[in-house]
Automatic annotation (TrEMBL):
Start and end residues of each Major facilitator superfamily (MFS) profile domain: 1-288
Keywords: Membrane, Symport, Transmembrane, Transmembrane helix, Transport
Transmembrane segments: 16-37, 49-72, 78-99, 145-163, 183-203, 224-240, 246-263
Subcellular location: Membrane
Any one GO cellular component localisation term in the record: membrane
Stated name of the protein: Major facilitator superfamily (MFS) profile domain-containing protein
Native source organism of the sequence: Homalodisca liturata
């Protein structure tokens, strides 16, 4: 991100190259997260673990949206937004190098009891030193994998539409500048982040108590996220009052947190040992 400021208007080609490199490097993020979750998240805690981690996407969005206006108007100007974001990324790298580990077996700080609990809860997950052949044919001919892929495509399409088109809609159709207040822009993502925690707890508890099966749970929460958001966006198209439009926009974004208990964690259910591969496929196709 920080290098983006060096390749701005004078050399657009350099900027384009930097952005492509950013995209390529970020492409590893989601598969790696699911690879780690497959080693760390007990089945009865998958929704919560995935939510705690993936919720960071919304938390980061909220922080940057809240601070961008202040940073851009500072003496550092708009490049400070990139320096700030890149600096946070470097800070995270330091923390990860000090505190992170690929698996419980490799972590130097967790207790023996916690390590044993995780290992006992994941008996079918291969250890780090075990190499497994990737069953490409089974993956590519799996109906559930393609269902997760379609859900992921729909999710990315809707979310990028919200991020790129909703501000224009507010400005052109409702004569309302959504970017006037940084907090107002960030508020839906803040609510999405906050609401995701109790809902993920409920999702896991319903499975533990046998009220819902894992399959039913994933389908229910994914339906709430996508259908609920779709209804809010349809209502937004007919809104004539800017306040009501903001409410519907906030609902559409907030309710989307249910994807963490839906398709976004389903890769771990389908194949813990190849969850990173499955996420690489669905996320890659969803970003095309």
């Amino acid at each position: 991100l920080m290098t983006t400021t060096t390749g701005a208007s004078p050399q657009p080609t350099r900027t384009g190259v930097i952005r492509v490199c950013q995209g390529l490097s970020q492409g590893f993020m989601m598969p790696m997260i699911h690879g780690l979750l497959s080693k760390w998240a007990p089945p009865q805690e998958r929704a919560r673990c995935a939510t705690y981690i993936l919720g960071g996407l919304q938390f980061g969005t909220m922080i940057v949206l809240s601070c961008s206006g202040v940073l851009a108007s500072s003496s550092w100007g708009w490049p400070s937004i990139f320096y700030f974001s890149g600096g946070l990324g470097l800070f995270w790298v330091v923390l990860w190098m000090l505190l992170g580990a690929n698996s419980p077996e490799a972590h130097p700080f967790i207790s023996a009891a916690e390590r044993q609990f995780i290992q006992r809860s994941l008996p079918s997950t291969a250890r780090d030193n075990v190499k497994m052949a990737i069953p490409w044919r089974d993956i590519l001919t799996s109906g559930p994998v393609w269902a997760a892929t379609l859900a992921h495509i729909g999710q990315n399409w809707a979310m990028w539409t919200i991020l790129t088109e909703i501000p224009t809609y507010f400005n052109k159709a409702l004569n309302y500048n959504l970017s006037n207040g940084g907090f107002l822009t960030a508020m839906p993502f803040l609510l999405m982040w906050i609401v995701s925690f109790p809902l993920s707890y409920i999702a896991d508890k319903l499975i533990i108590k046998g009220i819902t099966s894992v399959t039913a749970s994933r389908k229910i929460w994914n339906t709430v996220a996508h259908w609920g958001g779709a209804i809010a966006l349809i209502g937004l198209a007919f809104a004539t009052d800017s306040n009501m439009a903001v409410v519907l926009y906030t609902i559409a974004v907030t309710i989307n947190c249910c994807i963490y208990m839906g398709f976004n964690v389903n890769h771990l259910d389908l194949s813990p040992n190849f969850a990173r591969i499955l996420m690489g496929i669905t996320n890659g196709l969803a970003n095309v």
